[in-house]
């Protein structure tokens, strides 16, 4: 369908912008400011971003009482505005990436539940997942996993649905248990639960959980037991495929 092609192409554009923002994250702020001035673009202030955040938050509230068919156009228009403003976000880079992710997730849900176009929805949900991963936002990642679970359920992929729902909660439980074991100096048990969490993180790419895993490994790596060595090897493997 024509709108499916449109969402696929639009997703490629948004992901390209997210890639650009990811590379800019380490760039010198002065150079970024000079580039904006030379290009004649306006750098955005905190007040503008606060307004954009309020607009973004308004869509899920409106979705409770307004037809998705009435919201889809404006919602996608808002995401286009965010993408257009993103290169000039400066210090507010993470805020605009978060908003892009939120809008991508919401559009994906509407396409799944109301329009029934699961293929187009998949493209939008990939935007949400990429944004959450890029800025390491646990709340956005949880929201994204929930959206993807809805998508899997409504598209008939029950196995994927169960995996995503489990991923949203189980890996956190494993890390919590690992932290408890390591505090009690039961290092091998802690390493075993950390490995279990890492296996799920490998599929979700949940940045906050990965940082917790790395912190746990830093605590136990000096012991060099078989479980700890295995954890280190699997962590290296994961980073090599990132």
| Span between termini | 33 Å
As residue ranges, the low-confidence spans are 1-6, 25-31
Helix amount: over 70%
Largest sheet features: none
Task: Calculate the mean pLDDT score and round it.
Answer: 76
Described by the principal axes of the CA atoms, the overall outline is elongated
Judged by helices, strands and strand pairing, the structural class is mainly alpha
Instruction: Compute the number of structural domains.
Output: 2
> Care to count the β-strands?
0
- The radius of gyration is 20 Å
Our count of helices gives: 11
Order of helices and strands: HHHHHHHHHHH
Q: Please report which band the strand proportion falls in: under 5%, 5-15%, 15-25%, 25-35%, 35-45% or over 45%.
A: under 5%
How does this model look, in words?
By secondary structure, the protein is an all-alpha fold. Helices cover 83% and strands 0% of the residues. It contains 11 helices and no strands. It has helices at 2-24, 29-38, 46-63, 68-85, 93-115, 118-135, 138-154, 158-183, 187-204, 207-220, 226-240. Helix 5 (93-115) packs antiparallel against helix 6 and helix 9 runs antiparallel to helix 10 (207-220). The longest helix is centred in the C-terminal third of the chain and has 26 residues, at 158-183.
